[in-house]
Task: structure prediction
Amino acid sequence: MKHFFSASTILHQRSDSESFVLDEFLRNFSDYSAQYLQMDRAPLLTDNLYQIGRQVREGERSWTKHDLLDIIAWKRLYALRKWITEDKRELELHLNENLKIEDDDERIDSLCSGSGFGPVLASAILTLTWPEEYGFLDYHSWKALRSLGFDLTGRPFSGGGYSIPEYLHFLAIIRRLSDQVPSFPAKVADALYAFDNVRRKHQRI
Result:
């Protein structure tokens, strides 16, 4: 299945205030990235999972069911635990074989076809494996993009409700922003999370 997003579907006509906010985000990207690192509640787990992702990327090992449960804990996707009940061998085969697919859309479609695998969990696995290509799909990052003037619909919570085309739309935007910063899409998604956190704090004042 192919999902194409042209520039016109990624961007809509921004107001002056939205353009100002986007410029501010891009200008202070490094600060938001640093703030995200300070917000990390489990830095050792984060480092370990990225290390595993690097090893998977370089063919030194594969993702395991235990790793998957750690990813769920890492991103606090606890509702997904009950779905990760498949046979260990079949689960790991599904996970690792689908990561070998080269086509971006097919890789995501196929990965999300497994029990318990949706765009949110898939985005975490893909980001840990290829941070230079993917970013974690989170409601706060999604909401930040909307406040920057990107044409995204709202989502009620971060644990689910996203479709594959919506993740691909999100991914197209953060990849475009990563070229402007420049940085990896994973870093852009993290900075967007911190950006939304700052905005929420200011709105409460």
Remarks:
- The chain has one domain: 12-200.
